[in-house]
């Protein structure tokens, strides 16, 4: 997978060279290229912003530097195998390269979206600043990209870089080979629509707190059932909206008993709060 990021603060993205993502780049599993938007300006001050039409506070990022930067990204990505056409990753594969624009006005980024985007051969990210990017850039870019404004939460940041780092890490770790043990991807939060169960390690007794006895039993069937129960309880307590309306098919008699205790019933094959 090739990932291109355009920012006025390219050094901000340096952490993407660390840890598992850094190793993946060394091993050739990922390629991350960061472009400085100011390289696509022509005045001596490298100006990337101007006052907004219609008035108002703040500045807006100018269209032309973005167009030039994205044209370069598109040209460089065109040589990546699978780019610019439907590929064999499955039905989620895009026919055009994906351009993600971090925005509090975008669709909420989820684990499901991370899995979808991990199937793409190329991704591009546009890090806005100030009051955002001239809207015409998104309209123009849609001619060559699948443009997706995406939010990482209902709050506002100074720029898109933090959001990009979060999304690139979430997506990049799903690329085959990046995470050493692929089973760890299956058992983590949101992989199955639930929050992850609590985990423990040695010693079994620590400062008066004990590891749950069942985890010391060696009975893997009971342990698995306990973990699912803990997922349901944790999800109901912390993120109940994940259960409300969820498909009830994966849950058997034992799980449905726990769900009833937690205040959920099954109606038309879906969970709903009783």
Secondary structure layout plus pairing:
Layout: E1 2-7, H1 19-26, E2 31-36, E3 49-50, E4 60-61, H2 63-77, E5 98-108, H3 111-117, E6 122-126, H4 135-141, E7 146-151, H5 161-172, H6 183-186, E8 205-206, E9 209-210, H7 220-238, H8 253-261, E10 264-267, E11 270-273
Parallel strand pairs: 1-2, 1-6, 5-6, 5-7
Antiparallel strand pairs: 3-4, 8-9, 10-11
Helix pairs in contact: 2-4, 7-8
Subcellular location: Cytoplasm
Family: Belongs to the RNA methyltransferase TrmD family.
Pfam families: tRNA_m1G_MT
Question: Could you please describe the fold and organization of this structure?
Answer:
With 274 residues, the protein is α/β, with parallel strands linked by helices. 30% of the residues lie in helices and 18% in strands. It contains eight helices and eleven strands. Helix 3 (111-117) links the parallel strand 5 and strand 6 (122-126). The longest helix is centred in the last third of the chain and has 19 residues, at 220-238. It is elongated. The chain starts with a strand and ends with a strand.
Average predicted local confidence, pLDDT: 92
Unreliable stretches: 86-94
Q: Count the DSSP helices.
A: 8
**Could you say which structural class the secondary elements and strand pairing correspond to?**
alpha/beta
Helix content: 25-40%
- Cα distance spanning the termini: 45 Å
Provide keyphrases for this structure.
274 residues, tRNA_MeTrfase_TRMD/TRM10, S-adenosyl-L-methionine, alpha/beta, transferase, tRNA_m1G_MeTrfase_C_sf, single chain
Summarize the structure.
The chain is of the alpha/beta class and 274 residues long.
């Amino acid at each position: 997978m090739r990932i291109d990021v355009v920012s006025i603060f390219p050094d901000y993205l340096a952490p993407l060279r660390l840890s598992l993502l850094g190793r993946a780049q060394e091993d050739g599993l990922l390629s991350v290229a960061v472009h400085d938007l100011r390289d696509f300006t022509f005045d001596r001050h490298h100006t990337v912003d101007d006052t907004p039409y219609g008035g108002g506070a703040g500045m807006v990022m100018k269209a032309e530097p973005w167009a030039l930067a994205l044209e370069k990204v598109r040209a460089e990505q065109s040589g990546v195998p699978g780019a610019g056409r439907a590929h064999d990753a499955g039905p989620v594969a895009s026919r055009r390269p994906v351009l993600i624009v971090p925005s509090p006005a975008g669709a909420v980024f989820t684990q499901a979206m991370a899995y979808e985007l991990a199937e793409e051969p190329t991704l591009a990210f546009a890090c806005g600043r100030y009051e955002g990017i001239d809207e015409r850039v998104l309209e123009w870019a849609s001619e060559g990209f699948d443009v997706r404004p995406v939010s990482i939460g209902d709050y506002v940041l100074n720029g898109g870089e933090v959001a990009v780092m979060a999304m690139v890490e979430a997506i990049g770790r799903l690329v085959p080979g990046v995470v050493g043990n692929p089973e760890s991807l299956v058992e983590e939060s949101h992989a199955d629509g639930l929050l992850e169960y609590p985990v423990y390690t040695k010693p079994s007794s620590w400062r008066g707190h004990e590891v749950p006895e069942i985890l010391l039993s060696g009975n893997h069937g009971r342990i698995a059932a306990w973990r699912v129960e803990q997922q349901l309880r944790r999800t109901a307590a912390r993120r109940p909206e994940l259960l409300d309306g969820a498909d009830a098919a994966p849950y058997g008699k034992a799980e449905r008993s726990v769900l009833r205790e937690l205040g959920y019933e099954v109606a038309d094959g879906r969970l709903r709060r009783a």
